[in-house]
Amino acid sequence: MLDFSAVSSSMTNPTLISVFYAFLLSFVLGTVVAVLYIKTFQGLSYSRNFLHAIILTPILTAVALQAIGDNVARGIGMIGAISLLRFRTNIKDPRDMIFIFASLSIGLASGVHAYSIATIGTICFVAATLLLSKTPFAHGPQFDGLLRLNLPRETATQNALESALQENCKHFALISVREMGQGELLDYAYQVKFKDSNNKHGFVNTVRNIPGARGVNLMMQESVIEV
Fold first, then answer.
1. In angstroms, rounded to a whole number, what is the distance separating the alpha carbons of residues 209 and 157?
2. Residue 164 and residue 56 share a domain
3. What is the pLDDT of residue 54?
4. What is the per-residue pLDDT for 84?
5. Which of 41, 70, 156, 207 stands 20 to 30 A from 62 (CA)?
6. How many domains does the chain have?
């Protein structure tokens, strides 16, 4: 068992083993947060690079805190160096931002040798996230996948598509419609939740049999992983 008192040291003169535990704990807890993100993710796809960022952020944060120590001048210099960087990645989902902030917090706590705070804080964060993901709190309709297809600009074909969706889906939501082929075709994107998850192939065949349907593509949530 890890004895936290044995590896505790001051920020001014950290011991080699305390520095090692800071980086190791940052990596382990960052990996826990990344696995939690995967297990509780509810979108259609997630980025592997984002998962790597969740794991690497606490390590780099701990490195920065170890380098700064109690030296105010180092801290000011670190702020100046970081201000030269330009972070152009937009985080559109507030949940993703919270996971990045969790990684930063883990690195901060580990970097100042507050190992107990880092560990207990991660356990509480994991427990709260799992509780929210498993309970119906603030849950809307959950979708199975994304349907994309092209249809002629005709009322009959659009009505046939609506009928197929109503017959086979518990919920469906139109995401986007855009013109193609000089306005002769419309490209549709729907999120769908099936009444019977085993009838996916039958649903796709029904949609393909709609007169004029082209490029029918159903992307399932559990199989779409961004690499």
1. 10
2. no
3. 92
4. 58
5. 41
6. 2
**For residue 15, what are the contacts with CB-CB under 8 A and spacing of at least 6?**
7, 9
DSSP lists the bridge partners of residue 147 as: 190, 218
Q: Is residue 140 part of a domain?
A: no
Closest CA to 143 of 210, 86, 200: 200
Q: Which residue has the tokens 């075709």?
A: 185
Phi, psi of 225, deg, nearest 5: -120, 125
- Mean pLDDT check: name the lowest of 72-81, 115-124, 148-157: 72-81
Same structural domain, 150 and 129: no
| Region for residue 225 given its phi and psi (left: phi exceeds 0; alpha: psi -120 to 50; beta: otherwise) | beta
> Is the whole-model pTM more than 0.85?
no
Band (pLDDT 50/70/90 cuts) for residue 133 is confident
Phi, psi of 23 (to 5 degrees): -70, -40
Domain assignment present for residue 169? The answer is yes
Residues spanned by the domain of 150: 145-221
8-state DSSP, 141:
P
Do 217 and 153 fall into the same domain? yes
Arithmetic mean of pLDDT, 165-186: 85
Signed CA dihedral, 152, 155, 156, 157: sign only: positive
Query: Given 103, 134, 165, which residue is the final one in a domain?
Result: 134
Asked if 55 and 130 sit in the same domain, the reply is yes
Q: Per the domain annotation, does 21 fall within a domain?
A: yes
- Cβ–Cβ < 8 Å for 186, 166: no
